[in-house]
Amino acid sequence: MSAQQPEEDVYTHGHHESVVRAHAARTAENSAAFVLPYLTPGSTLLDVGCGPGTITCDFAALVSPGHVTGLDRSPDVIAQAQALAVEREVRNVEFVAGNIYDLDFPDETFDVVHAHQVLQHLTDPVEALREMRRVAKPGGIVAVRDADFHGMSWYPEIPELDEWMDLYQRIARRNGAEPDAGRRLVSWAQSAGFTDVAPTSSNWLYATAQQRRWQARVWGERVLHSAFAEQALEYGFANAADLARISAGWHRWGSTDDGWFLIPNGEVIARA
Ligand SMILES: C[S@@+](CC[C@H](N)C(=O)[O-])C[C@H]1O[C@@H](n2cnc3c(N)ncnc32)[C@H](O)[C@@H]1O
């Protein structure tokens, strides 16, 4: 870890129930398919910024009897991940609080070091990748996946969703983070010293009635109640009426019969 670490990065989403519920819908299959070919029984894996741990527990099942460690800066979300492991009776996983910039593991510990939707929230993603590389075994992999906010597209055109995008970009950048992370992953991996970098991309799509309802409800709530709302107000980027209007716009989009929302994700497998 270098001398000036951004220990106090502000996490744009926060851990409101509406946020963690959305993250808990993720699985290894729907969010980390690009990693699956690299998982073998007996592999050791570190999942950095694991959130509520649904992807982490899936990994544990796939590498069993190998050991999986989930790490997150938030002790609250770590407690939720621990409860999930107990509920699912996954025994080869542990969850610990920690910081991606200062991983409390010796050099060359893990076969796979993974971070899903984490780098976009950091003020120094390159330093985070260097630290992930440090704890990966030689010949092991560092695997990262991040959305690209300006790459998102939707239909129909709802002005409040344009407002939402503009507000999200302003808040994330005010926090020193990079919301258009997906397109930068190759560059960040190269800057972190990786020479063997394999890029891919994959989408999340919300275009069935059920998917639209889910996505509209998630963001309709987050805009009003999560850290996104608190930061929008605190930074003076929006007022309560603006947030109410944007939330209503999400619900209007969710009640369309033909709505579409596409989230592109950049992915990188980097050899340690
Ligand atoms: C968008 S969530 C992703 C959670 C999980 N990987 C998933 O995809 O469901 C980002 C997570 O990174 C964590 N995080 C943010 N900054 C971190 C840091 N410096 N060190 C470790 N975790 C961090 C947050 O607490 C949050 O749980």
UniProtKB/TrEMBL annotation:
Key words of the record: Ubiquinone
Keyword 4Fe-4S attached: no
The Methyltransferase domain, residue ranges: 40-169
SUPFAM superfamilies to which the protein is assigned, alphabetical: S-adenosyl-L-methionine-dependent methyltransferases (SSF53335)
Superkingdom classification of source: Bacteria
InterPro entries recorded: Methyltranfer_dom, SAM-dependent_MTases_sf
CDD domains associated with the record: AdoMet_MTases
Gene3D superfamilies assigned: Vaccinia Virus protein VP39
Keyword Electron transport in record: no
Protein name from the UniProt record: Ubiquinone/menaquinone biosynthesis C-methylase UbiE
